[in-house]
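User: I'm putting together notes for a lab meeting next week and I want to include a structural view of one of the chains we've been expressing. I don't have a solved structure, so I'd like a prediction I can at least talk through. The sequence is below, exactly as it appears in our construct file.
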Amino acid sequence: MEAFEKWFESLAASMTDEKINGAVAAHLTEYDDDGNVTYEPTAEAVEAVRIEHYAALRRGAYGSWQQQLDKQYAGTWESHVAEVKARFGKM
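Assistant: Thanks for the context. Below is the predicted structure for the 91-residue chain, given as structure tokens.
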């Protein structure tokens, strides 16, 4: 599960919510041996995964401690934290 959490962190660091949903949907899609889709997740299934792993999304969106220090120095850290909390609220 740790690799999945790291993957989620990387998504939040570099993608919009729409692209994150697409990546999660692609990850959840199942195929048979011939490459035909046997399961395509609903929007509710994608949202359930996002809710289950919201903490990983938040970690990725905050950035590294070095990036956060840079934001503190620039005076933008507080607004960045507010944006992350609004985007990935606690569930």
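A couple of points you could mention at the meeting. The chain has one domain: 2-87. The first strand starts at residue 30 and ends at 31.

User: Perfect, that's what I needed.
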